[in-house]
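ok here's the first one, seq then struct tokens
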Amino acid sequence: MPQYMLLIYTPVDGPPPGSDPEQTAKWFEYTQALQDAGVHIGGEALQPVDSATTVRVRDGETQIIDGPFAETKEFLAGYYALDCPDLDTALGWAAKMPNIHYGTTEVRPVVDFSKVMAEAAQAEAQQQ
């Protein structure tokens, strides 16, 4: 079955994750609903954006920068990995997220490299 990442973005000026017990309960309920539906693979909340460290290498030099790489109005607050039959199912789960009315959720298919490798092997076999 295809896998999807639900990337959870929260406004920078919003409440820190876990600071509102009522909202936290909604997240636990949402996670339980994903588990009950059999689509939950994993997921976690992330520490606040000011705890981030950005690493990049430019011209052979490693650069380590405290904080996020770019200033934004939203930050990546967490993620869920889901195993769903199709994109519409993953989008349906994203629409039920507790922060969907003030945050943003990006839904992306996960690349299945076993499928990519099998297709490449099949194409190579056909060329021979």
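and now the second one, same deal
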Amino acid sequence: MNDELLREAAPVLSVSALLRSVRDTLERRFPLAWISGEISNFRPASSGHWYFTLKDEAAQVDCVMFRSRAAALDWQPAEGMRIEARALVTLYEPRGRFQLNVENMRQAGLGPLYERFLKLKAQLEKEGLFDLSGKRDIPEFPRCIGVVTSLQAAALRDVLTTLRRRNASIPVIVYPVQVQGEGAAAKIASMLAIANARAECDVLLLVRGGGSIEDLWQFNEEAVARAIRASAIPVVVGVGHETDVTIADFAADLRAPTPTAAAERVSPSREELLLRVAGLAQRATREALRRIEYAMQSVDALARRLVHPRERLRTSRQLLEQWAARLASATARRLDYFSAQLAQLKSSLVNLNPGAVLERGYSLTRNAQGEVVVDASRVADGERLTTTLAKGWIESEVRNKGG
């Protein structure tokens, strides 16, 4: 009877009422306070809010910094950074989750893991392990893609789904390996070496989903970085979220912001390839038709120049006849010219012929020396002269002469 009375007297709370009461108690008990710790699993949301974990060597707590508070900060928090946060201890009622609402934060140095990260990065960078000159090109059309990750990883499902969606015809080989926890780094390095020894793939994807800096720490180990650089096969690293950066990212031939992005980068889209092939086929068809048209035009031009032998002989005969006619005409003109010249010379000879002069009644008188006498004063009395007539000659003696 007493138990029933107690049950009737005790209030019955709903879950939301209980959590609201706990939240109010926490916020009254713990006013705004400065809390120090190391940032882990930093996740900026598209809304502008920041979600992260604040931890130390023994414990960790979820934190949220809303957009209005985050926008007022003049520096960017990063994974592994040690901070001091001015926060309100509260409870997120929809999930019943204990968290800190961060109002402000200030830098307080680097966490030990982040310091190790920076130290190793500087060492390997000095050695030239991250030099661009040592990075290999990612094949545009891989014949086989290798995936190095855990069989239980959600990243593997995302990668296989992406590869199947983009081009299911490309073979995929999964090299299973532990990607988190003690000794995982050595196993990752060993699996990269095995994949190289088997030489089955044209490119390797080293992938893992998101997590805290501790979860991803195996990808910050020196053994993994050196195994990536020693690989004869190009390695694409897609570890964590876009904001997560590891030593493996710097050593990789290509860093992808997420595992899905890594799969998209190495797998040519089948649809895009079909479009490219169709475009190339159209170009090849147009080029072939253009060449055929050019060839047809050349044939037409040659056909116009092509003459039947009979026609060529007829043309040659006509040309020969034309040349013969021109030659005969030229010869006739030259003969006429020479005939006219000859007639002119003949006429001149006739006019100059002494015999013709004599025929007109003239005579030609010579002295005894045969010289023509043209001056009476040049002959002496009694000199004998010979006169030539048109017909015959007369010999005479000078008796008298006049001037």
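notes on #2: The chain has a mean pLDDT of 86. The chain is about 45% helix and 20% strand.
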